[in-house]
């Protein structure tokens, strides 16, 4: 695969020689750290140029700004046969400053530690991007964006279209977005998972794509980040979209999951399963209401599916959660369903999922739309479709959700 640009580093400047279709090159002055577009960068020796597949952004470290370039990717596939999607496998960190001589030994150590940490975090395979498709937004969100733009969605910059909830390098793009000519280089990156595969459905060649988007709010590791905050953000919130494309028809399935929308914690200890502690002083109801109001505005009717079990700590969460869900029914278009996943499907009894799938509310919704982002398509995209809001302490190993078809 061809790189998007080549980086050339001299003692005075950092140059980004971009592909012709990008339409702009970049010059960074290493003395005053000024970033500016340039139409004619100086010639360079190809052997000294570093190929880059994109710009993750810039970040301020001990020694000043640092450019984070994407120098290693794995091609995931082409979404809808057109939009190339990449997994980031390695990054190149290039400090703006040409020297570290002015740093104290402690500052130099901190600078080196920050560079190592950044390289590790950005190269662990959890980040994905596309130069032509907004991975942070669902098919329906993008259709609505076309409506807002009056059918001229192709002129919307990717960073403008991106959903800030899943736009992980948004803050790193400030220096690029500040200059309109460089905005084309601000490619949103999501954290999560993307898989694209060719499938055959009833003899027809189709494409299956799975996109999981992890939210930036209240992200954290297991046990250390639990529950909800005052703004209604739940820990480890993930939106999963399944996109099936068959010719001109595109079916988009959206499901969300997250931690129980309560103020609770599970501090790690020597126990295999740390004790669950539910706050007795925090306002659970209003925080949960903010959470479900947001979901209702985005998706319409919400089915909250609780997959937790009957263990002592989990059962306390279930009781409190169900009580709040019942209180919210008068204010939010919400239905609550409890399915003890570990009990019902223990010992590999996956067939018992049929008990869940036949429950009221797990329905199929079809919307037929035209092939283009036409007026008909946009009007239909505005209609609400159910979403499963799944709250549980541990994720299940299956996916299911309602359908909203957009062609």
UniProtKB/TrEMBL annotation:
GO terms for biological process: phosphatidylinositol dephosphorylation. One of its GO terms (cellular component) is endoplasmic reticulum. Residues 118-322 form the SAC domain. Pfam families: Syja_N (PF02383). GO terms for molecular function: phosphatidylinositol-4-phosphate phosphatase activity. PROSITE patterns: SAC. InterPro entries: SAC_dom. It comes from the Eukaryota. PANTHER family: PHOSPHATIDYLINOSITIDE PHOSPHATASE SAC1, PHOSPHATIDYLINOSITOL-3-PHOSPHATASE SAC1. This is SAC domain-containing protein. It comes from Salpingoeca rosetta (strain ATCC 50818 / BSB-021). The lineage of its organism: Eukaryota, Choanoflagellata, Craspedida, Salpingoecidae, Salpingoeca.
């Amino acid at each position: 695969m061809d790189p998007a640009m080549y980086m050339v580093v001299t003692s005075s400047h950092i140059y980004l020689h971009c592909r012709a279709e990008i339409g702009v090159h970049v010059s960074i002055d290493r003395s005053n750290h000024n970033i500016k577009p340039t139409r004619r960068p100086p010639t360079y020796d190809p052997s000294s140029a570093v190929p880059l597949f994109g710009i993750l952004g810039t970040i301020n470290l001990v020694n000043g700004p640092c450019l984070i370039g994407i120098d290693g990717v794995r091609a995931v596939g082409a979404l809808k046969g057109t939009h190339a999607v990449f997994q980031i496998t390695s990054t190149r960190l290039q400090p703006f400053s040409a020297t570290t001589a002015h740093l104290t030994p402690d500052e130099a150590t901190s600078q080196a530690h920050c560079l190592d940490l950044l390289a590790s975090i950005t190269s662990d395979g959890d980040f994905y991007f596309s130069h032509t498709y907004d991975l942070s937004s669902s098919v329906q969100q993008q259709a609505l964006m076309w409506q807002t733009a009056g059918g001229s969605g192709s002129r919307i910059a990717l960073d403008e279209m991106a959903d800030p909830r899943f736009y992980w390098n948004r803050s790193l793009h400030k220096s690029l977005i500040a200059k309109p000519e460089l905005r084309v280089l601000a490619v949103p990156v999501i954290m999560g998972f993307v898989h694209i595969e060719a499938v055959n459905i009833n003899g027809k060649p189709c494409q299956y794509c799975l996109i999981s988007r992890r939210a930036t709010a209240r992200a954290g590791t297991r046990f250390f980040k639990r529950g909800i905050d005052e703004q209604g953000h739940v820990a480890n919130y993930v939106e999963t979209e399944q996109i099936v494309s068959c010719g001109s028809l595109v079916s988009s399935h959206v499901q969300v999951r997250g931690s129980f929308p309560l103020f609770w914690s599970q501090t790690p200890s020597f126990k295999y399963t740390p004790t669950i502690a539910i706050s007795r002083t925090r306002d659970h109801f209003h925080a949960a209401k903010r959470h479900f109001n947001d979901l209702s505005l985005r998706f319409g009717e919400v089915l909250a599916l609780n997959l937790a079990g009957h263990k002592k700590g989990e059962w306390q969460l279930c009781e409190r959660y169900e009580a709040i869900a019942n209180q919210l029914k008068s204010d939010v278009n919400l239905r609550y369903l409890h399915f003890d996943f570990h009990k019902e499907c223990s010992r590999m009894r996956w067939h018992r999922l049929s008990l869940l799938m036949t429950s009221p509310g797990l329905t199929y919704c079809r919307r037929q739309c035209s092939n283009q982002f036409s007026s008909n398509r946009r009007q239909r995209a505005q209609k609400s479709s159910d979403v499963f809001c799944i709250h549980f302490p541990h994720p299940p190993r299956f996916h299911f959700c309602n359908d909203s078809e957009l062609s």
